[in-house]
Amino acid sequence: MKPRILIVEDEPALVAVLRYNLESADFDVEEARDGELALAKVAEMQPDLILLDWMLPELSGLEVCRRLRRDKNTKNIPIIMLTARGEERDRVRGLEIGADDYISKPFSPSELLARIRAVLRRIRPALADQLLTCGDLLMDLAAHRVTRNGREIHLGPTEYRLLRHFLEFPGRVLTRDQLLDAVWGHDVYVEQRTVDVHIRRLRKAINGDGESDLIRTVRSAGYALDPPAPASPLTHSN
Ligand code: CA
After folding, report:
1. What residues are neighbours of ligand 1 (ion), with CB under 5 Å?
2. Distance from C-alpha of 81 to C-alpha of 8, rounded to nearest angstrom
3. Fold of the domain built from segment(s) 131-225
4. How far is CA 100 from CA 25, 82, 92, 116, in A?
5. How many helices, marked H, and strands, marked E, lie in the chain?
6. What confidence tens digit (pLDDT) does each residue in 69-123 have?
7. Which of 4, 157, 199, 222 could form a disulfide with 175 if both were Cys (CB 3.0 to 4.6 A apart)?
8. Class of domain 4-127
9. Whole-model pTM above 0.70?
10. What residues have CB less than 8 Å from 215, skipping those under 6 apart?
11. 132: CA distance to ligand 1 center in Å?
12. How far is CA 79 from CA 31, 215, 236, in A?
């Protein structure tokens, strides 16, 4: 089951960008455009996490957060507050009344996704850790299943472990030694070029016709799994 995220934000353009990026990362998304609607929506859908804008019509984000924390049915739902840059005072108040994290606008989609995963991992490990994604590539750890663009991908055990390790460190360059340790273990002697052989197989399996190569070769360093560039940057200030 996909984690459900409720976006509480009154700016339609920002909601659209958030929705696009969250759905691409395989979350179910619902939205509410003011504080009163947010409370109704929370009761209706029981979200796994709430992105809560600070400046909202009807009830402020702060008041919504306070009310959710007072209600025994909603007091444990993770909340990430969205607010304008530099309002340190707001941040402290938000955390005081029970927000789990806080992110300043403007923020990048990848930064937001990292925060969401971190909060989910801390609070609901099962939700955060069952699915690993990179753009349209998805690894379901519980089902031991990999798909790209909805297409099922069959991997050998070594390629599966390699891909899992890459997905746990998206964007980071991993050396052949690091990959050997992580995938084959410290105690096994395997030549470095073995890594290259399995990377080649992994690439062949995950990159379909016309799809971008998600694995980047970094000369004399190693390999990285790169998420595709986000659709559009979040540059709203409100
Ligand atoms: Ca707003």
Report:
1. 10, 53, 55
2. 9
3. Arc Repressor Mutant, subunit A (1.10.10)
4. 21, 11, 11, 10
5. 9, 12
6. 999 889 889 999 998 756 667 667 777 778 888 888 888 888 899 899 888 877 7
7. 222
8. alpha beta
9. no
10. 166, 199, 202, 203, 206, 223, 224, 225, 226
11. 30
12. 14, 33, 20
